[in-house]
């Protein structure tokens, strides 16, 4: 079974992650390599004790086949320890991590000594299995037992068979017959008797002779009863052998001295091996960047510690007993409670890790991470706890530094959204009233696309620097994202929030330098207030941004205060974005046409196709509301193609009706030029409706050209050669219009409507228009002035010799049928619009509030918006509001008040006539209450 299949079998959920020892196993497919490469045997149990996965080290260690190992763990456990091992397994199933030593049965019928760790596997805070680690310590255990045995032999010499035994008579200085001594020396009995004293002395290694002589003389003189000494003695092979000599007077014959020699070769090797291993262990402990120790958790006594342990604490008690009093005197007070809980957990037998701060007399503090792993006797009691400590002071300082960096934007060097939110919450806690002023320069995406992200970064640095210099000291400035910022303006600031916002809007009059360009910004701002608009930091910031988005929808620098009606406004925007996907197939889109006329004769010389949307619930949707929604997705492609198809279809129907065709222009999204094949689609539409290319005109804005995309240039050249006319819309409004006239095949320039607004009285506007007209004549371009609404404006453009105009003075956008009648007439006359009379506004009104409760049976939670109720009857309420409302699909709560009187009702908006909404009461009793309310205020209504 693969590791991934085992985890799937073990897991109870396909989405929740697994946790082993507090670590998340988020990617099981990539973790298998780690388990296979582990030096120890790794295995996983289900809750029944069955092994469902193991790495290759387990069969190599135990010698069993794969099939045998996929059984209960009792297969390789000796019968006498099954109960103890099962108890440890059950403790792991309760959530504990346990460590113990046990024996394992090898397939070849011998036993291994294993050091085992069992850890719970958690999912959704439930134990679903056990993770096991086993290490073979048989050799280490055997070596340890050998050393113990040898030590016992040394301590109990008299109970161990001797290598050499003989008796020495000090009075005769002779050695009694000894077969073991003769065998060791390789001599016969006769040869032993003829050995001289000097020859016997030569058998002793010179290094050991003097100490041996000294001890022997003391024994002969009865100064000691016995002595022991290690000596090297020549053997039969003429080599020195390390022996342990024990000499003592015999109890039954005090005159004789018994000498026993023991072979210490194995002991010496064991000592050497033990010394080597201790030295290696010491070197490892000293080299580790950690403090390792063994501690008795019940008493706090340190059983063992490395040098790093002393380096962390810098001083230890003389008795090496870390009592709680001694420990808590050195731990920061803020960590006392956590340490108490940790000690209780450790005493209950659970492993864990804690981070705490140590204090030192000189004021220093160290951050310590301490991992404690309790080790148990087979009876379940804690033997000791292994402790691994690390000094993580530098890590904590680094984390604090990272946290600071995480709260500051790297490009603008201003507080980011998180720090801004934290500051709002802090100001709220201080119970001080303030306003949140969100600001956007509205250019970052455009600049990134046109000039690259390096220029975009310059833009962010420039705009943030301007705001930092402009803002008063008591105002807090933060970065929201892009070229959007937020200011926290306290109520104690000398200027009110409106004045503050107006000062920001004034920044749009000055160019902002990003090498090598000087760019202007359209600044949008939104305001929310604490405590009036919200008591929540995130919601207050959201309300400010909601007001900002409302400002952004306008084509000039402005600001808005948050109002509850904006909630409905943006809910409407959300619904429109959803419904726009189906507007074409539901036939909700249509075109209107506005004629372009000769300035002097009024003859129609062209027309512009303008898209409209009649929504079944929200009524007529202005293009400024849904065109940006289409631009934010790929919908602009389908809508743009539909406009071209519909415009060509209208031209074909007008031709069949006998009208003289004139050029028709359609507006094209800048993004449309980024999609290959657009020019061929126009060509096919003209062929389909048998239209000459010179009758088709594309109106593009400078945003389509500023990208300087080679594909855009190629498309425009292709269409121009085909005969399609290219018009540059909103001329004079943007960046560098003159350059585009030279670089691209432009046929028509349309003077932006902002010049028409004040041209009759503004000499500068007249001078600019005159320059545009002169340049157009030099370049042989046609000119159309947009936005002409008054006779004075017309006369001024005529005086400047502007040949063509477009505007409400001659015609508003009209339907296909009316446009057909215009084409048959060929000439239009100027009609200046009159202001609405006061008769259009109801003379009686009652102030009230309206709140949308449901839409398409979905419950909503919006604030109240302002309304004015003007009339009622037994079935309907007639009212006005600035908030767009859906028809027939929503229910509303309305509250009307006059003085101390208050009445409420529930209704559905069913129509919109003469500038008023018509609401149908959902409850007749409520309708009667509203009617009485009106009668009490206006008895003769």
Keywords:
941 residues; alpha+beta; 8-stranded mixed beta barrel; elongated
Q: Would you give an account of this structure?
A:
The chain is an alpha+beta fold. Helices cover 38% and strands 28% of the residues. It has 32 helices and 40 strands. The strands form seven sheets. Strands 25-26-28-29-30-31-32-33 form an eight-stranded mixed β-barrel, surrounded by four helices. Strands 1, 2, 3, 4, 5, 6 and 7 form a seven-stranded antiparallel sheet that branches. α17 runs antiparallel to α18 (453-470), α22 packs across α23 and α23 packs parallel to α24 (678-688). The two termini are 86 Å apart.
In percent terms, what proportion of residues is strand? 25-35%
Shape: elongated
- The end-to-end span amounts to 86 Å
Mean pLDDT over the residues: 84
- The spatial strand order of the largest sheet comes to 25-26-28-29-30-31-32-33
Low-confidence stretches: 152-161, 834-839
Total strand count, please?
A: 40
Structural class: alpha+beta
SS summary, helix count: 32
- How would a crystallographer describe the biggest sheet? 8 strands, mixed, barrel
Q: How are the elements arranged and paired?
A:
Blueprint: H1 3-10, E1 18-20, E2 23-25, H2 28-37, E3 41-46, E4 51-54, H3 57-62, H4 66-69, H5 82-93, E5 98-105, E6 111-123, E7 126-136, H6 138-155, E8 164-169, E9 174-175, H7 179-185, H8 189-194, H9 197-202, H10 206-220, E10 226-234, E11 240-249, E12 257-263, H11 265-287, E13 291-295, E14 302-305, H12 307-313, H13 324-328, H14 336-347, E15 352-359, E16 365-376, E17 382-391, H15 393-406, H16 417-429, E18 434-440, H17 444-451, H18 453-470, E19 476-481, E20 484-490, H19 497-505, E21 512-514, E22 517-519, E23 524-530, H20 537-552, E24 558-561, H21 565-579, E25 589-598, E26 604-615, E27 619-621, H22 623-631, H23 635-656, E28 664-667, H24 678-688, E29 696-700, H25 702-706, H26 710-722, E30 725-731, H27 737-743, E31 748-751, H28 753-757, H29 763-779, E32 782-786, H30 791-799, E33 804-806, H31 816-825, E34 846-855, E35 858-859, E36 865-872, E37 876-880, E38 890-898, E39 901-913, E40 916-921, H32 924-937
Parallel strand pairs: 23-24, 26-28, 28-29, 29-30, 30-31, 31-32, 32-33
Antiparallel strand pairs: 1-2, 1-6, 3-4, 3-7, 5-6, 6-7, 8-9, 8-12, 10-11, 11-12, 13-14, 13-17, 15-16, 16-17, 18-20, 18-23, 19-20, 21-22, 25-26, 25-33, 26-27, 34-35, 34-36, 34-38, 36-37, 37-40, 38-39, 39-40
